[in-house]
Amino acid sequence: MSNTVAQPSLQASASTSNLSTNLSSDSRKKSHGTIKAEAHSFNYVFKTFIAGGTAGCAAKTLVAPLDRVKILFQSSNPHFEKYSGTYLGVFRAGKEIFHTSGIRGLFQGHMATLLRIFPYAAIKFVAYEQIRNLLARSGRSTPRTEFVAGSLAGLSSVLCTYPLDLIRVRMAYEMPKNGKVPGFLDTLKVVYQEKIPSTSFFRLPVTNLYTGFGLTVIGVIPYAGASFWTHSMMQRLFRERFPNALVTKDRKVQQETGEKVRLKAWAQLICGGVAGAFAQTVSYPIEVTRRHFQVRGAVNPENNRTTVKEVITKIYQSKGVGGFFVGLSIGYLKVTPLVAVSFYAYERMKWLLNIH
Hints:
Layout: H1 2-38, H2 42-62, H3 64-74, H4 89-106, H5 110-135, H6 143-173, H7 184-193, H8 213-241, H9 251-257, H10 265-294, H11 296-299, H12 308-319, H13 328-352
Helix pairs in contact: 2-5, 2-13, 3-4, 3-13, 5-6, 6-7, 6-8, 8-10, 10-12, 10-13
């Protein structure tokens, strides 16, 4: 009699267990579907735009002085050639700029940088999230997906903000004249009015603002792709191999919703730093060539006929292969914390704005 009663009880228990499992599975599926649907909503895109732009501005402000010195080195500014190629060169150059123009000199062109970097970073992160979601299969992205999404995101942001980058570089390259530094509008006017010959029959002055754009496109694809890919791989490594790097209180949330566990601050900074260093190494020769090409109007206003091939030849003949890596040490000093802070700030902004 007791066995007869126990059997239905066990069956009921199993049935309840299966029902609970199915409900849990359904809730996870619904959660995944909801997250994926929200990723394409206006609210998600807007918050991603704000998070990305804020992260970019925070990171750029941190490394602005190094950025100024790096541009002077990359473009072979005659006044700062003596500091190039030495371990302490960046600090000596920064010291001279400080004595000549004060703290303002170290941040010369920074307003142009912020005007450019907010939309640049915002568009980059928005494009990355949207493209990755479109390319991802079964809700999971692959290394190839990360690289392609990162490359296309970088290309999208550069296309929209390149003129601002060109003006920033020209402002950083110029030295003070009569105690005054060139302003944004003054530099824009000079670049716009430069007479740059073209092989095409018809050329508009506005195309001056896209000088060196082709080189930028070639450089941004490996840089952005490698940056997002490496960052994703590093995050995955920390989540799988280093449990101490995870925010413990988020584990239960992950089990219930399928969301990724957040990394602790130090782990997130390491992921971004490694991503920045790797991406910088891959794309640096193209960046050096582009800088030389961008400032050709400032170097020789009367003759802007220098081609990309001639720029590459000139760099190689004057400094050899090492000429394409001039300022790379500064690049590491700048890009490693830049990308680390950028990704860290972006992830924290997403958390604050409640987007995943």
